[in-house]
Amino acid sequence: MTDFRTALHSLGVWDTELPSFDPSTAPADPLTLFHEWFTAAAEAGETEPHVMSLATADEDGRPDVRVLMLHDADARGWHFASHATSAKGRQLAARPEAALGFYWPGQGRQVRVRGRVATGTPEESYADLHARSTGALASALVQRQSEVLESVEVLAEASAAAWERANAEPETASKTWTLYILEPSEVEFFQGDEERRHVRLRYRRDGAGWVRELLWP
Predict the structure, then answer these.
(1) pLDDT of residue 1
(2) Kind of pairing, strands 209-215 and 177-191?
(3) Which among 44, 136, 133 has a CA at the least distance from the CA of 82?
(4) pLDDT-based confidence at residue 172 (cuts at 50, 70, 90)
(5) Is residue 69 predicted with pLDDT exceeding 90?
(6) Number of other residues whose CB lies within 10 A of the CB of residue 121
(7) 178 backbone dihedrals φ, ψ, rounded to 5°
(8) d(CA 191, CA 22)
(9) Mean pLDDT across the stretch 79-96?
(10) Is the distance from CB of 167 to CB of 161 less than 8 angstroms?
(11) How many CA atoms, within 13 angstroms, populate the side-chain half-sphere of residue 106?
(12) Does the N-terminal or the C-terminal CB of the chain have fewer CB atoms within 10 Å?
């Protein structure tokens, strides 16, 4: 069996031709460029380009990170959702700031977003949940995310009951399901380069507009 370090050091990076990126042609706002890069990643066949890392901190300042799905990105910010009672929900209630990270390896591209997090209205949270699949509704109806689980059998029983309810009552609500919107103060776009001349373009909020800055790789 190959050991960990042999496997680790045998791995290559960006063994395909990467797209070019001229930062001088970048739009004035980061949302437009994010939409362009996201669409390019989807069209290039990137696996689950809507999956992102969400970093938060608890009330003691200890960092936490997990992977979840992007639900939207518009003029208000980057949208995601979870239970208000989950670990991330409690952390965002205590410290309403977060960071997002997207990585599309086939493109050699990363996008990093930082800013304050606001909650959507109950109506928006309801609409977000019911725009998704029956499985997503069933999962939300269990409503015990991040709690200690006694056994996999208990999970199976709760899941079966939630699926039954989701199928019988597709319009039912989850009281704790919450839409979150990260309002960006910084957005960085990273374009990898085979010769390590990576391009980093940062948008930094300045009043109602944005300042664009190149960063050393």
Answers:
(1) 64
(2) unpaired
(3) 136
(4) confident
(5) yes
(6) 9
(7) -135, 135
(8) 10
(9) 96
(10) no
(11) 12
(12) N
CA dihedral in degrees (164, 167, 169, 173; nearest 10)? 90
What's the gap between Cα 73 and its chain centre?
Answer: 10
Q: Are 188 and 6 in contact (CB under 8 A)?
A: no
Task: Record the tokens describing residue 151, joined without a space.
Answer: 């056994």
Percent of the chain residues topping a pLDDT of 90: 74
158 contacts 143 by C-beta, under 8 angstroms: no
Task: Write out the DSSP string of the chain.
Answer: ---HHHHHHT--S--SPPPP--GGG--SSHHHHHHHHHHHHHHTT-SSTTEEEEEEE-TT--EEEEEEE--EEETTEEEEEEETTSHHHHHHHHS-EEEEEEEETTTTEEEEEEEEEEE--HHHHHHHHHTS-HHHHHHHHH--TTSPPS-HHHHHHHHHHHHHHHHH-TT---TTEEEEEEEEEEEEEEE--TTS--EEEEEEEETTEEEEEEE--
Spatial contact of 188 and 201, defined as CB atoms under 8 Å apart? yes
> Please, are residues 103 and 51 in contact by the beta-carbon 8 Å criterion?
no
Whole-number mean pLDDT of the chain?
A: 93
The tens digit of pLDDT for each residue in 113-155 reads 999 999 999 999 999 988 888 878 788 888 778 788 889 998 8
